[in-house]
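The data layer described in this paper is built around a simple, fixed record for each protein. Such a record has a labelled line for the sequence and another for the backbone structure tokens. For reference, a complete record is included directly beneath this paragraph.
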Amino acid sequence: MEDLAGKTDVEDAAVAENPGTSRRFIIVDDDRIAAGHARALLTRAGHEVLGVFQSSPGGLEVIRREKPDAVLTDIMMPE
């Protein structure tokens, strides 16, 4: 359920469980809408999104350079 601030109960629970715990993510997804939703959810939960990429090759260079805590990726990408 979404509250007036636009946060869901799940997001509030995630932040409450790990206060002050911020992770660094990279998102790789050819679906711009899905990537945008993922970015918004992670940002609202207090995490840093280092970049959003529509192709694997574009994301790989940044993954190697930035060494994020996690990569959120679509497993059915054309490239």
About this structure: The mean pLDDT is 82. The first strand starts at residue 24 and ends at 28. The beta strands are 24-28, 48-53, 70-73.
